[in-house]
Amino acid sequence: MKDKSVKKYILKLVGQEIFKEVKCMASDKVNSILQSTNANDLKCFSWNSLLTELTQFAPLMSSVLVSATKTRAPRSNTKAVIGMCAAIILKHRNPRMNIVQKINSLILYAGHSSKQVYQRLNPLNLTVSHVSMIRVLAKVGLGYDARVKEWRDSLLATITDEDELTTQQAPWSKSTEDGAADSDDCSTDSDDSWKQFPPMTSDEEDQPSEDHDSADDTGDEDLNDSGHLGTCSRSTEEESSG
After folding, report:
1. Cβ of 87: how many Cβ atoms within 10 Å?
2. Measured between alpha carbons, how far is 134 from 142 in angstroms, rounded to an integer?
3. Does a structural domain hold residue 184?
4. DSSP class of 196
5. What's the rounded Cα separation, in Å, for the pair 130 and 113?
6. Cα gap 57→17, rounded to integer Å
7. Domain that residue 88 falls in
8. pTM across the whole model
């Protein structure tokens, strides 16, 4: 590789081979995870699956990226760096290979990022546009409240059944109503019974009743028989005669 003329041709051949690999991987012939539009793939995405595809369909590009990110001390984010570099390159080749960019956009949305952030990062193939992010968000959130709706429907069904049971007439309600009606009739008769007697006139109210007079006479006789009032009556007669 010290010969610059030979190195030049080798690098040209390596570039052509990488171009073929990227073109093949970005085509529809390869069912790449980067082209997936499934919400489950967004949730279950891993860098290992992407690196496996790179090793299988783009081995030369993968080896170049691995060599470029090699360090003396191993780092935990090496796979993520290689996968991100490959995702940027492949999205530049085919805009539909953007699952990594969708994930980045959702992370930014969770952080309440503004539209200007998407406008600046989208041209760098780091994210999708703000409009695309909204579509992805709607697709990911589709059916997220299905369990809540099922729970709501079960509650509504229970409430409806209880209302039907409440509105249905109980077998004993009719007899209870009849009994109440009879009691009302009795109370009415007892309350209005006094109306069958004619009202008293003023003369009848002033005239004393015979029962009261007889009771007074009987009381006088009883007192005379006792002898106490008799003594008072004799003394009264003697004074009047004197």
Report:
1. 23
2. 12
3. no
4. G
5. 10
6. 12
7. 1-97
8. 0.60
